[in-house]
Amino acid sequence: MNALAIKGLKKVGDILLPGEGAFPRFSQTQLETQLPRLMDEMYEDDRSGFILLMNIFGLLPSFVVRLILWTASFGHGSVFRQIHIGVRGVLFTLYYSGIDQQGILPALNYSTTINTKLPQDDEMQELLRNANPLTMPASLLGPTLIMEKARIAHESIRTLSVSDRLKTIKRLRFVVLKRQEEIIDAIQVETHKARTDVLTSEIFPLLEHLAFLEAATEDALKDETVPTPAAMMGKKSQVWYESMGVVLVISPWNYPFYQAITPITCAFVTGNACVYKPSELTPLQGLVESVLTEAGFAPDWAQIVYGDGRVAQELIDLRPNKIFFTGSVATGKKIMAQASQYLIPVELELGGKDPMLVFASANIQRSVKGAVWGAFTNSGQSCTSVERLYVQDSIYPEFKTLLLSEVKAMTLGVDSDGNKDMGAMISEKQVKIVADLVKDALAQGAVMLTGQEWDFHNKMIPPIVLEGTTHAMRINQEEIFGPVLPLMRFSDEAEAIRLANDSTFGLSASVWGEKAQVLRVSRQLVTGNISVNNVMVSEGNHALPFGGVKDSGIGRYKGVMGLRSFCTVKSVLVDGNSKKIEANWYPYTTKKYRLLSRLVQSLFLKKWIGFAVNGLKLETYSQKARRD
Ligand code: NAD
Question: Nearest residue CA, atom 23 of ligand 1?
Fold first, then answer.
């Protein structure tokens, strides 16, 4: 392969153009119409730097410009390289066109200040020296180029067989296992979690997920033959599950590794390319890329874009084929509003306010331990944490005594040996949210049974049990997302159900007690997931679909249903390539009407002899029917 082909270029006359199927895909004729769009989508700093450069080029003879670009683009010059990075690859397009000659830029009338700040560390300098949009990491490209690369990547992923995709997933499982401790270290640095929390709620469920993909994807995606009704005898009906294109995944900070790899791999096994935007609080910079690369992912199969919500908004405007969002209700609504402009399908995995109901028939020891773990794992920063605990009157005193002794025995710290129960909060902002809700409840008469030592500022919030809260208080309406457990009581089944359903959320719930009773109650709960005689465990089985109702979200992921939510569902009816004329086609004649009418009657009254006779007559007549 020659140097041009390696760069994804080809030479046409005296102009360089992108090569076939390579990036970016602008042709010579498209260029004039593409330029204003490109300018619009460039970052402000890049745009002004780029304009200045073009103005300078405008003063130079064309052969000098071409020489500079040629030399610099192939890694020998520093000036172009610097500016090339400044414009995040967009200059490549202009390089192909010789755009400085076409007078378009002056006509666009932009101001000119330049910002070509280069990253300082050696590794990055080396990377920039060899920069090429085809191989540059997503972090150095603008959203337009990232999305272009993803669309091209989709073309190659969709042609991989499912079994080839699953070989990569298997390798990924081994890479995660091999690098387990290193990954846990990195997660702890950014999240301040207890080490065991990271192992049990990021690594373990991720491995379960990958194992589920390996076991279930082939069957989930294979063509599905569905029944064909009697009136369509001789035909075959199938559902095909096909890739959608580019899936944009936007994730929160509470399980940053799990919530990266899980949706990325769902997108991948179903044949999609993925653009992943982690939370700005837990970017795990470079970690996800390195794990995926080691497993054999090509760089463009899943591109990772760092930044805050604005970056995600820019990506949405570039019309990915699906948005998979996990995060808060407020952000979910914004995403849905933005996506609605382009009719992009959205899947929203939002917050929760999960109730736990403990009936008198429950095993008290076990349910107490379940409540403590369900409320305080991950410092309560889990969408399915127990946020409201309701205990039946008759066992309330005993339950409360045991609960308090369990909570008081908990140990706190960001440990390196797995010997602490609960770590610290993610951020000061989240600490303030928790503090405000607790203060509000205390001001209205709630009592702190544990955690009184907390100063309402320290990120190491101790586990707090509150008594005396009511549903009129914010603490029982809003998501706490911290280690706070409001303990309440109920008298009977009806009251338990009413209290559990009295929330705008509906993500998950847990119900404890004698089996017939808890199953009966579970049927009455308005929620997406239920753990019976257990807590936060329904999401642990990756064969079960996961998602919420009400404000907790839209859509389901995990399980076969979840995998198929990353697919375009194509319904196909296959008929023979015969000369047969369908009975319902033209011409419509009175005789055909009568025959059709009798057929409808016999079919839906299930008079099979009449159906067979009328069907035969209609069939024969339809082949020769002529307009009178
Ligand atoms: P968040 O909504 O503040 O942010 C989530 C992501 O959205 C981040 O990557 C953020 O940068 C991005 N974002 C922010 N504004 C945006 C915008 N306008 N457009 C597009 N993207 C934007 O949520 P968070 O504080 O990071 O996470 C906590 C929330 O996530 C809680 O409500 C929790 O219940 C929820 N959550 C839900 C699940 C679930 O599966 N249902 C799982 C984990 C967390």
Answer: 327
383 is catalytic: yes
pLDDT tens, position by position, 260-313: 999 999 999 999 999 999 999 999 999 999 999 999 999 899 999 999 999 999
Residue located nearest, by CA, to atom 26 of ligand 1:
252
Output the pTM of the full model.
0.81
- Token pair of 388 as six digits: 């409201």
Report how far ligand 1's centroid is from the alpha carbon of 251 (Å).
6
Q: Is residue 563 part of a domain?
A: no
Measure 387 CA to ligand 1 centroid, in angstroms.
18
Q: Is 511 helix (H, G, I), strand (E, B) or coil?
A: strand
Quick check: CB of 430 below 6 Å from ligand 1?
no
- Residues 265, 255: Cα–Cα separation, whole Å: 16
DSSP sequence for 216-252: HHHHHHS-EEE---GGGTT-EEEEEEEE-SEEEEE--
Quote the tokens at residue 38: 């490109």
The DSSP output letter for 380 is G
Q: Are residues 379 and 438 in the same domain?
A: yes
Residue 552 lies in a domain: no
Q: Check pocket membership of 562 for ligand 1, CB cut-off 6 A.
A: no
Task: Name the CA radius of gyration of the chain, rounded.
Answer: 30
Residues 301 and 175 in one domain: yes
